[in-house]
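Q: Here's a chain of 388 amino acids. Please give me its 3D structure as tokens.
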Amino acid sequence: MPTRIQLFLLFLRLGLSSFGGPIAHLGYFRRAFVERRHWLTDEEYADLVALCQFLPGPASSQVGMAIGYRFHGVPGALLAWLGFTLPSAIVMLAAGYLLIGHPHWAQSGVVQGLKIAAVAIVLQAVLSMWRSLCTTSARKVIAIAVATLMLMFPTPVAQLAVLASFALLGWLFANRRGEPETWTMEPVDHSRSDFPFLQLFVALLILLTTLGSQLQELPVQIADGFYRTGALVFGGGHVVLPLLQHVTEGWIDADRFLAGYGLAQALPGPLFALAAYLGVAAGGKLWVGVLALIAIFLPSFLLVCGALPYWQRLRRNARMRNALNVVNAAVVGLLIAAWINPVVSSGVPGAAHAVVAVFAFLLLQWRRMPPIIVVALCALVGRQFLGA
């Protein structure tokens, strides 16, 4: 078992080198903890991944927290998150701060290129999630229906209502006769905690939502919006895009939002570090970015620490599994709607932009080029040919 220092340093190294998004991150984690160091077995690692796919939030960051929690309890989960998130968070904080002093940067050719890269990357994510999550005709219909509804009613309230409604339908119409999944990982002593993590998760969600509806101070609005996003986004990664776009509406224009999203694609570590950039850009101060970063990751931290001891019972519940499957199909619809508006509507204003976007998508989808290279190429093309 690693010491706490070893755990932090290993996750810091992963945070500096884990390019490619959440699925790639899981591969890096497996290589580091299962193949190279044998600190986990394949079965143990697979069970932790299954838990984090089951919960809302950023799946790869949650797997890191769960690994840290399994070895060293709450301090281990905190160290794992800090090491994995710190490198990308620092860059995103700096980018948001740079934007304050150079607002014209949002209209530059480089930003146009970053927005085009976002068009290609989100489309690739949509297709990948469609194939993996919409495996039946019913789930495909759900995704299309949700996309249509969100294009007609593009508001945060509509998003929450749609997700809650489809989750309830999945719960009510679950087939309870299915065989329960097996449980293979032996629980460890420090996985059992009397601290009410799940109760705190719900209490903060209610409290911040209430305060956010009553108080207009920016720190309260930031804490509410980003905590709610982290608490309610299923699928992680790219799925956070539509929720964050609605949360920051009125604070950050589409150009700056998509520029930050494109930059986040070029960095290792979690995509949720985008919250640091958005917080600084919205509030004009570094501490606001740190607040946004903590707020969006805190739900995941509480859920992992609270759910791990109860995972055996959760995964055996047929109603819960079916509700999750339906919600996963619904979030594909959310992402389709977000890709159409604002990603395409803002990132492809002309024919030249469309040509570059198609070329970037082909590089990603068929040439399997790493996203960091595609982002860099789009930024270069934008600087040379699409600048004002």
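Q: Can you summarize the key feature?
A: Confidence is low (pLDDT under 50) at residues 177-189.
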